[in-house]
């Protein structure tokens, strides 16, 4: 009788151990999440990625950095020669935190990667400072590859699914394949390439002929 009880207790203990070690522990420690993420971490093809982001607007940088930090093999592609984006083209030299009243309290809205990009430069900065800061942050990510001076050529589409985007880079044409593509370009260049429907102005709210005001920026030197 005692031996049967001992055997039963051993079986119960073994079942408990395996349930905890292979079932509960990975969820608690995050190992299960990392395992699922790493399924797409290293696609076999040289131009196969888990995530491809087009455009180095701050939103594009945030998307690419987030993917890389999750362990995804990430490619960031831009037509520009640096990650300056509209900060460079619009001569943006100042940024300030945005706040909103959330549940009765004043909350800062632009945290996270936004703070990383602009936090190093302070409220007032030069375009060069911003570009240097962005490059420094991206260079730390081993899972992130950046292509500058790239040209967007065409898209391989099957029904409503984009299977690949052809890009001209480094003097060659590359077919980039990924399960997820993000268009973070200023003018939606890749969306247009993929024949995605779009609207102009304020057509989404029923005012198609209403557009944002034009802003002129210029530099005065030798004054």
In short:
The protein has 223 residues and is α/β, with parallel strands linked by helices. The chain is built from seven helices and nine strands.
Q: Strand order of the main beta sheet, please?
A: 5-2-1-9
Through-space gap between termini: 101 Å
Average pLDDT for all residues: 80
Number of helices: 7
Q: How does the overall form come out from the CA principal axes?
A: extended
Radius of gyration based on Cα positions: 24 Å
Structural class: alpha/beta
Can you tell me the residue ranges where pLDDT is under 50 for at least 5 consecutive residues? 36-41
Q: What share of the residues lie within helices?
A: 25-40%
Structure notes:
There is one protein chain. By secondary structure, this protein is of the alpha/beta class. The protein has two domains: 1-33; 40-196, FAD/NAD(P)-binding domain. Helix content is 35%, strand content 21%. The chain contains seven helices and nine strands. It has helices at 2-29, 31-38, 58-69, 85-89, 113-119, 127-139, 189-193, and strands spanning 51-54, 74-77, 99-102, 105-108, 144-147, 151-158, 161-169, 172-177, 181-183. A four-stranded parallel sheet has the order 5-2-1-9. Strand 1 (51-54), helix 3 (58-69) and strand 2 form a beta-alpha-beta unit. Mean pLDDT is 80; it is low at 36-41.
